[in-house]
Amino acid sequence: MATSSLPTPEAPATAPPASLVGAQHGDRVFRLLLTTAALAIPLLMGFLVYELYTGSALAIDRYGLGFVTGSTWDPVAEEFGAAPLIFGTLLSAVLALLIAVPLSLGVAIFLTEFAPRWLRQPVAFVIELLAAIPSVVYGLWGIFVLVPLLKKVVFPFLRDTLGFLPFFQGPIYGPSMLAASVILAIMVMPFIMSVAREVLLAVPNSQREAALALGATRWEAVTSAIVPYARSGIIGAVILGLGRALGETMAVTMLIGNRHEIAASLFAPGYTMAAVIANEFSGAGTDIHFAALTYVALVLFVITVLVNAAARLLIWRVSRGAPAGGTGL
Amino acid sequence: MAESRVHLATDRLTAMYGKFTAVKDVSLTFTANTVNALIGPSGCGKSTYLRTLNRMHELVDGGWITGKVLLDGEDVYAPKVSPMQLRRRIGMVFQKPTPFPTMSIYDNVAAGLRLERRVSRAELDEVVERSLRQSALWDEVKDRLKASAMALSGGQQQRLCIARTIAPRPEVILLDEPTASLDPGGTQRIEELVFELKREFTIVIVTHNMQQAARVSDTTTFFYMGSMIETGPTRQIFTRPAQEQTEAYITGRFG
Ligand SMILES: Nc1ncnc2c1ncn2[C@@H]1O[C@H](COP(=O)(O)OP(=O)(O)OP(=O)(O)O)[C@@H](O)[C@H]1O
Ligand SMILES: [Mg+2]
User: Fold this and answer.
1) Among residues 223-242 of chain A, which lie with CB inside 8 Å of chain B?
2) CB < 8 Å from B in window 183-222 of A
3) Is there an atom of ligand 1 within 6 Å of B36 CB?
4) CA angle, residues A106, A111, A116, in degrees to nearest 5
5) Domains contained in chain B, CATH given
6) pTM, to two decimals
7) Pick from B48, B96, B90, B52: which is nearest to B71 by CA?
8) For domain A59-319, is the CATH number 1.10.3720.10?
9) Do B151 and B140 contact (CB within 8 A), yes or no?
10) What ipTM goes with this model?
C-alpha cells in the first residue's frame, strides 16, 4: 500500500517529485505506529497469561489438572477444586442464552420487519438504554424484585408442571442457578437485540422483495430470506451475549447463592468463577488460597478464549461462500 | 398468434406514494403470450406501474392505488384476493440479480415451490431442471447445482432469478430492466430468453434500451411523467408514432 504513491498534479512526470518522498516517509511512520499498536495487543495478552500463570504456579504445582475436576473448596484445609465453579459459569451462561436469544431475536425481528414505523426507533432506543445500567443495579433489582417473584410464583409453578424433571425438583430458596441465569438473560438481551437489529437492518431490501415477489408472506420472507442472509451477523450477536454472560460477576454473585456445589436442580444455589474471584480475593489469607483464585482466573481466561475461538470457527463455516454483507445484491 | 385473449389489464389505474401521484389514470391491456415493453424517461413511473400489477407497490410505505388491475378479468385488488396467491400467478424479476446468497443454485430455483407446499424430491428435481433449461442456464450449472448462487456471474445470476421466477409456473412475468446491470453478451442471452418464454407466459418488460424494446416486444407503451402517452404494436410505435413526445423520445431528442 505504501508503494503505490499518489501522483501529484503539479509535479512534472519526469523529475522525481520531492513531495512523493515525503509522503512515503509519512506513510512509513504511520505504518510503524500502527504496527506497534497492533503488536501491543497480543503482547499484552501474552503478558496477562504469564502473570496468571506465575500467580497460580503454587496451585498448579500442588493440584495440577485435578483442579478442574475436583469439587471441594476448603480454604482452611487448603483443598481447592474448581469443577462447581466451571459448571456454574457454563451452565448459567448457557441457560441465560437459552432464555435471551429467542426473546432478543424475536424483538429484533419484530422491530425491523413488523412493528409500525413510529414505534421502531423509540423501542430500540429504550432497549439500548438498558445496556447502560450498571450490573450492581441489576443485582439489587434482582434481589428485591426478581427473586421474590421467582420464589413465590415462577419456581413453584415450574415445580408443579415440570417437576418430573430433575432440574425442577428440590427445595426452593430463592437465590439459585436459575435466578442468576434469568438476571443474566435480562442483562445480555439488550446487547443481542441491538446487534441483531443492526444486522437485520443491513439486509438489502431487494432480498425482502425477492422473497415477497415469489409469494412469500412477511413471516416466510423473514425465515427464508432475511434471517439466512443475516445469519453470520446474528451468530456474532449471540457470541457477544455469551461473552458477557461468561464474565458477568456482580449481579450473578448477588443472585446465585454462592455455594460450591454441582446440583442437578436449577432451584439449588451454585457459584461461578468470576463470582468466587470477586468474593474471596480480598480476603485470601494464605498464599495457596491466593494462587488457587488466580488459577481460577486462568481457567476462566482459557475457557473464554476457547469459547470465542469455537464461535469464530462457527461464523467462518456458516459464512463461507456467502459473504456476510455487501455482495449479496 | 392463434388466440388473442386479454390476459392482464389495468383500468384507469392511478398509483400514489402518499400524496404524490407516480402513475396517472393508465388503462392498458396485455394479450396472452405477448411481450409488452414499457419505455419512458427515468422517473416516469414505469417501475411503479409494473409493481402495481403484482401488488408489490402496496408494500412501500404510503403506497396505494385507485382504479383496477384485472387478471383474466378478475380484480386483483378485490378484498378476497390474497396478494401472496396473486404473486404466485404474476412473477417478477428485478433490475439487479437478487439470488438468495445463502442458498445453493438448486435451492434458489426451488425456493418459490417450497413456499407453496411440500414437494417431493423427485418432483423438485424435475422442476429445477426444467426451469434451468428454460432459462438457458442448465448446461452451465448442471454439474454444480449444490454450489452457492453467488459463484455465478451477474448474467448467470439474472438467468437464475428468471429460473426461480418461472419454477412455480406463474402465468405472467414482470421484468424491471432485467439487463440494466449486464454486459452485451448477458443482455443478448436474456433477450433471447424473453423471446422464448412468451410461448408459455405473458411478459411485461420495462426497459431503457430502445433497441431492446424493438427487438423483443410485440407491443410498446410510452410513459411520460406518470401518464401513458401512447401504446401500440412495437413496429408502429417505432416507425410511425402518433404522438410527438413519443417520437422525440425514441429518436433520442429528450430523455
Ligand atoms: N418509495 C417511493 N416513495 C416516494 N416516491 C417514490 C418512491 N419510489 C418512486 N417514487 C417516485 O415515483 C416516480 C416514479 O418512479 P419510478 O421508480 O416508477 O420511475 P421509473 O420510470 O421506474 O424510473 P427509472 O427508469 O429511473 O427506473 C418518481 O418521481 C419517483 O421519485
Ligand atoms: Mg424503474
Assistant:
1) 224-225, 228-229, 231
2) 206-207, 209-217, 220
3) no
4) 130
5) 6-250 (3.40.50.300)
6) 0.83
7) B90
8) yes
9) no
10) 0.91
